[in-house]
Hints:
By secondary structure, the chain is mainly α. It is built from 22 helices and no strands.
Amino acid sequence: MQLSFLDIAVFICFVCFVVGISLYKSRKEETSEDYFLAGRTLGWYLIGFSLIASNISTEQFVGMSGQSAGIVGMAVASYEWMAAVTLVVVAFFFLPKFLKCGIYTIPEFLEHRYSPTPRAIMALYTMVIYVAVTIAAVLYSGGLTLHTIFGIDLTKAVWIIGTIAAFYTTYGGLKAVVWADLIQGSALIIGGTVTMILGFIAVGGVGNFVQVNADKLHMILPSNHPEIPWTALIVGLWIPNFYYWGLNQYITQRTLGAKSLRQGQLGIIFAAALKLLIPFIIVIPGIMAFQLYSDQMVTSDMAYPLLIKNLVPAGLKGFMFAAIFGAVMSSLDSMLNSASTIFTMDIYKRHLKKDASSQSLITIGRIMTVFFVVVGCLIAPQLGNPKFQGIFHYIQDFQGFISPGILCAFVFGLIFKRAPSSAAITALILNVPVYGILHLKYFDNIVFLNKMAITFGVLILAMAVVTLLKPLIKPKVLPERAGFDMSTSSIIPWLGAAVVAMTVVLYIIFW
């Protein structure tokens, strides 16, 4: 694909603007709290946009759009609309406890609730998943997009993306990330909207689109569907949702940097409202791509890139290039910052050098950011193998090896105050073999979301047995951070209820 001078200029200006603003806003990062949590000064609008921008990447533009173009159709939007409800629960159930403790990382909370061992196990799990799955997957899907649209060699595209993201993430920490996300999040929403409008024009309008694709516009699928049967909506899909939005460091880190509980909750509710819009700019365009270009798709992951390649006119390609590039950057920078935070605070400072100074922690964080980029870039080109069944499936499936156990440890521990550390350790360790057994060929007829539900049930039962046999004599007292504003607002519950109500309405419309 040939890019005009204007396209190239728009792209270069966009990248320079994002990097320049993020470095300027993070120029005074002096302490570890400044670097890893933006000095705990983030307002609701930065938190909300950063949550969405960190989440919406080529994992969605490539993977989720590809799922909608394939056999799943509109039902893949459940990941987005159920996430809106999940975020409302996180705002009222998880966030107050996390902010009150003043934690740097999500694994750190497990030490306060249980003991150092669950914290270490979760930190190790999270590091492996970030590097081998999420970081590598975002690099691959970003590289695939640039390769499909612009013909850039896949491996070169992966290294270009990794290098730029590592540059400003390494320098500025979380504050650089959230300001970059504010700009990139706006660009990807605008770019996605433009693509959707062009798609509707190409398919002959909304009415013709609905008529031609009526079989793909259902949220509730049969119980024997191979990807998202209606049975998975009952339990299975909630597990990755609650893990991702409530306990996933690279998502929750910006909420941990909130200046107050009110700002944190408003930011999360704002992100939940934006979540309701995402399927219209990602899932529906994927269905359009199948209608228009199914004969050109080698894999379903090519759906959205083909839409851009064939529909976006000269002069706008530079902006779309920048929007897609920004989507990759916004997720990748968050993952890199959070992975380095977990290594630095949960492994290095906790086990290797407990008396480390703030400056040395920042240095270690920067070194690990570069290391994670290099490893991710080496793994990413391998993910095009058909055995992974598409990048979105790859990410969701592999996270099942840790997400049910982590969710069990947190939820069970928060509800049952006498649950001992051994119960959490049991759930975290047992997760891998239980979920692994369900991946044997004897269970091929069970979709991975239902495998997560089964694993979750087994782990809850295991924690209950351990707690009954050896309960804590006295419930653990969680630490309380002094001087932090834990006040909230009476309007926030009403805003959360409005988001839940709108989600129900959307499910009814696309039933």
